[in-house]
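Progress narrative, work stream C.
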Amino acid sequence: MKTDCVIIGGGPAGLTASIYLSRYMVKNIIIAKDMGMASETPEIENYPGFTKISGTELVQKMTEQAKHFGGEIIYDEVEKIEKADEGFRIKTHNTEYDAKTVILAMGTHKRKLNVPGEEKYTGKGVSYCATCDGAFFQKTKVGVAGGANSAMTTALLLRKFDDEVHMFIHSKLKGDDILKDRIMKDDKIIKYYNVEIEEVYGEQMLTGVKIKDRKTGEVKNVEINGLFVEIGLIPNTGLVKGMVELDEKGLIKVNSKMETTIPGMFAAGDITTGSNHLEQVITAAAEGAIAADSVHKYLSSQE
């Protein structure tokens, strides 16, 4: 199948790129495994136009808009990208696509604790998505690993279901002051500062975590029935490692036009070095729009 542009990734960056490309009358196809990390965000309060909206709903609206303007969305997984005579060849599980240009918008995935018991109890109390699994832990005690915006948002969501939420914070709360204020005012959210989780344990299901005070070295057990891990993100750039230039964190290096080090290949969203690493839906969307504009100009220059 031939097209002007293949967009890899179905989150805000990829969807916005599709919307803009379609309005430029540039034929485009989105290939995505899923709806991206943004769809797992319980509540978004800082995207213009919506006082409050779930990540799933927002991404669904973007998906509908991309389809409305003519973007084609295929849920599949890209296995390989190769340079071709007239652009790029993109190979998936099911087929191959020839594209004059590519926009990389693969997003990120959750960082794991990498401690004993984490893998064993994943799906048995350990979760990386409060939107997906939070409702399963009603009227019990749960924990959140992390202290930034995603962790605070998760803790506030879980408080709707649970009697107690224990936050295990590596140093201090970091992020939006409005979220910090809500966390600090809720006495059912129990905060542990300067700690790290050393072990996840249980029987058939998770029953607790072992934490260590980073200053004193004191170790203690905290009984919880669920643990939601929110300690950061890792860019999904393995597909293009060795192909485009990455920084020390594995992010794709881009310029202000969202150009990578390969002509005709662009990148947008949380996988890039752009937008001051803000990692927000609005910056992902902005980068998607810029990448689409750059694709349009690049294709026009090739005519």
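Work stream C, second folded protein:
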Amino acid sequence: MKLERIRIEFDMEQDRLLMFILIHGAAEVRLWLTRRCVKRFWIAMQKMAEWKPEIQRQPTPEARTAVLQFEHEKALREVKFSRQETEPPEVAPRAQPLGPEPLLVTRIQARREPDGRTLIALLPADGQGAHLTLSESLLHGLMKLLQQAVAKAEWDLVLELPQVDLSFAGTGGARTLN
């Protein structure tokens, strides 16, 4: 089945994020993400983004971080983000294979396929969960959606890619880099 759209909203009453996964013309899955789960999910997504060979081949942590940031920005340019706040009326109700109530995600599994795609499983304590296959651009797009939703949640949780500090704290004079 082909992924149509992912939407993440903050539910103030539940103090959780509600993730909607829409499968093209067929189904909808709803998942609750707690603050704790989001922290683990973010770490897993960062690791998946860093698994890219172009990043791993870099000789220093600073170079890996810089390439990761470049790849993130490049991938985000390929993703189509909708600014629509409300869901358009559906022609027919979507099937809800995991039930009408959102599942509470308690476990996250991730792995990278040889072709570069990322497989993510968002699982409840018991039973079936959602399994996503994401391209590089969709992985980074999901990271961006999660960042935006966490900012709205006001959880005092900052989701950032590693930052490179290119300043040099030296004791001597100016340094020249070639």
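Residues 166-176 have pLDDT under 50 and may be disordered. No further action is required on this item.
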